[in-house]
Amino acid sequence: MWKENEAILKVILSIEKFKGDYSLFCNAVLQNGYSPDYKNFSRLLLWKTCLITESLNIKIWKERLQSSRAVYHELSRALSMTIPWWLLKADSEYFTALPVPEKDHVPRTLRRPTRIQNPTSDPLINEPAEQMASNKYFDVELDAELLRVIILDVQRLFPGDSQFHGADKDCLAHRRRIISILFVWSKCNVDVGYKQGIHEILGLIYKNLWSESVNISNTNTLSFEDLEILSLYDVKYLEHDLFCILNKFVANSGVMGQFYQSETALRGAIKKFNGYLMKVDQLLHYNLITKLRLDTELWSIRFFRLLLLRELGNDLAIQSSFWDKLVAAEAFSSPSHQAIPELLYFSIIILLINVKADLALCDFAEAMLLLLHYPISSRLHLHPNFVDLLFQDAYRLWTYRHTDLKLYEYGIKLNERYASVIRVSFGAESQSIAKGIRLNTIPSTCEIKRENSAFEKSRMENRLKKRVQLFLKN
Predict the structure, then answer these.
(1) Total Cβ atoms within 10 A of residue 302
(2) CA–CA gap between residue 233 and residue 209 (Å, rounded)
(3) Helix axes 316-330, 386-399, angle to 10 degrees
């Protein structure tokens, strides 16, 4: 966590750098002008400015923060949002006994049934519609099951990370906060509910914002202006702010609607991605879709749903830097033009272009293995600033999204930069690949091997499709 003076100084210097201009600030993030390389960089300032206050005017922060925090405060106190910690097993580290100050103050729906209750209505008659609607939002047993699922995922969050995995009370408190936010958020978004993967998105945001939060001391040494700045960093309201940030980052941005909400929406997103891939790189599209018959649905779901969290490597600082730019881009989007999903499409296309030569030599199984274990380390070794370049190129493609010719022309430039080892000839020699190796000069033993592996390929594809279907249902 940061010290009070550290947070105040970085905010003042950051605002002065951009003269209090919010648009200039967001543009600087997009163009890598405000990044962790800048000594007064604050990721908390970036995220809360872009997703909560939407202004660098300190005078209006307090009002906007109060308005945002009041939403989570009221939701978390609502009876229907009560987290049933008491329904967990007594030996669970999250178990909390239900406080019962007075018997009449505890709704019967919050207690475990201890005896068979006499029915007051005919059980063969369907429930009235009004009663069914009310039960939809408050069924304590379903809530308990939801809580168990969230706990199971959070327990596996970032294995080995000392902030979340340890025997001390702080680690438990961190996990408990994340669980609480996810529970309330899932109850509020009943049309989507909780989906596996959201915990990783929230976990990374939590980790970054917690590290810069401030525990404000109860002293008279801070001026009114200082307190206005520190209101943004107050650790007491971290849970409130994270709820708002999660909602805007994954719900309002279109991520939930396109990648999580339904199988139909996800298929629509995949279709749109394939369309962009065709416009940017026809050869790559042909190789994956036609030649290898590699259904995009088999490998792309994790890319979409986790916002490239796994594909950009194990260094969380790299993913965080990429997400910073997504957040800044969201400031310029609208309900009709949601930036984050389309920036993801183009980012993935650029990742594919980077391994285009490898994919050209792969069969079905090898291509699947490559895409499910993207070789990001080799890209970072060649280009230390690879993630910055990745976003810059994706953002350029996004600005060209309505002009097919510009997408095609920029795709050629990307190929010259990242896949220049591939050469295609349309003469009698047909296709050739990097360093003089011809694609059509394949030994007969290789052909035999491919024929013998046809059955294995088909079986693997069917198994993967079943896994995808199960993943979508969950």
Answers:
(1) 16
(2) 9
(3) 20
Give the whole-angstrom CA distance, residue 207 versus residue 415. 36
Comparing CA positions, the residue from 467, 272, 457 lying closest to residue 367 is 457
Specify the higher pLDDT residue, 89 or 121.
89
Reported residue count of the chain is: 474
The pLDDT tens digits for 331-366 are 888 777 889 999 999 999 999 999 999 999 999 999
In the chain, the percentage of residues whose pLDDT exceeds 90 is: 73
What pLDDT is stored for residue 336 in this prediction?
Answer: 74
pTM for this predicted structure:
0.83
| CB-CB contact of 248 with 330 (8 Å) | yes
Q: Are 214 and 197 in contact (CB under 8 A)?
A: no
Q: What is the identity of the amino acid at 10?
A: K
> What is the C-alpha separation between 164 and 143, in angstroms, rounded?
24
Structure tokens at 270: 């995949």
Give the chain as a 3 state SS string: CCCHHHHHHHHHHHHHHCCCCHHHHHHHHHCCCCCCCCCCCCHHHHHHHHHHHCCCCHHHHHHHHHHHHHHHHHHHHCHHHCCCHHHCCCCCCCCCCCCCCCHHHCCHHHCCCCCCCCCCCCCCCCCCHHHHHHHHHCCHHHHHHHHHHHHHHHHCCCCCCCCCCCCCHHHHHHHHHHHHHHHHHHHHCCCCCCCCCHHHHHHHHHHHHHHHCECCCCCCCCCHHHHHHHCCCEHHHHHHHHHHHHHHHHHHCCHHHHHHCCHHHHHHHHHHHHHHHHHHCHHHHHHHHHHCCCCHHHHHHHHHHCCCCCCCCCCHHHHHHHHHHHHHHHCCCECCECHHHHHHHHHHHHHHHHCHHHHHCCCHHHHHHHHHCCCHHHHHHHCCCHHHHHHHHHHHHHHCCCCHHHHHHHHHHHHHHHCCCCEECCCCCCEEEHHHEECCCCCHHHHHHHHHCHHHHHHHHHHHHHHHHHHHHC
Residue 137: per-residue pLDDT: 46
Tell me how many degrees the CA angle 331-34-18 measures, rounded to the nearest 5.
75
The CA distance from 371 to 373, in Å, is: 5
Strands 423-424 and 431-433, by their bridges, are antiparallel
